[in-house]
Model the fold of this input.
Amino acid sequence: FSDYRDLSCEIRDISKKKNAVILAHYYQDEEIQEIADFVGDSLELSKKAASTDAEIIVFCGVFFMAEVAKILNPNKRVIMPDINAGCSLAESCRAEDFKKFRHAHEDCFAITYINSSAEVKYHSDIICTSSNAVKIINDVPKDQKILFAPDRFLGEFLKKETGRDMLLWHGSCVVHENFSEANLIDLSTRYKDAHIIAHPECPGNLLKYAHCIGSTTHLLRYSAAHPGSKFIVLTEEGLVHQMKKASPGSEFYVVDSAQGCESCSKCPYMRLNTLEKLYKCITDELPEITMSAEIIAGARKPIEAMMRAS
Ligand code: 13P
Ligand code: SF4
Done:
């Protein structure tokens, strides 16, 4: 292919011929977002996966997202460009350890963030995403103890938002935990009128500066509601592509990573997916997400509980 436009056209043609749907998370490379039939946050992508009548779901995101699509569509082929696209949160919570944790706290209702493996979901009471977590926690009777896994920073944020005491798993996101507070202060000193917008996977020392905290879609809507403004962004920089499209007159400054590397505000897992791998994946219909019928049935229950609640 002479350039990525040819490759994109070819992917689109194959997708149409095969009756496939391409779903992409906001943290994907721009050219993948541009080619997708639908771009969204993790809740919207789950809903889209649940309602599609396409025969093949091509999931451009990370492994746990593609797993959710498979759990909701056990009879469909779900493929993703790079099967190694994991997530540090999902990896921080191994099913055997989570099972022991649950046994040690049998009196707790387990609310699990969608950034977790299917096996961990299997051992959970309900799943949540950053866009419905507050509602899901508020729906739990006040006298019921709760445990929340695997993101401790999101958990701390939710404890403050809901006033509920929750037992927290100690996982974190490699991207959101590493934004530099010094760079955030520097940017907000330079751009005094800027809105600071943050994903709740960021630690509290960063969230305390934010004017708006929420899921990727929530942050996108907030920026679109303030056209012609400046934004200091504390989330994966892929989202800025949609923000710029929605608000071409606004300015966006992504906070640097404390580790000082240029690409640290890019999720190393999400960015394993490339247009070339997407082409190969849709052509070969591989790699495919597979899991046992038992895990599918068991993990489906808490996902459906989330769908009903949101
Ligand atoms: P959203 O549900 O807000 O899209 O977040 C997913 C994610 O992985 C954030 O790091
Ligand atoms: Fe996981 Fe963080 Fe990447 Fe989101 S940005 S997929 S939480 S590692």
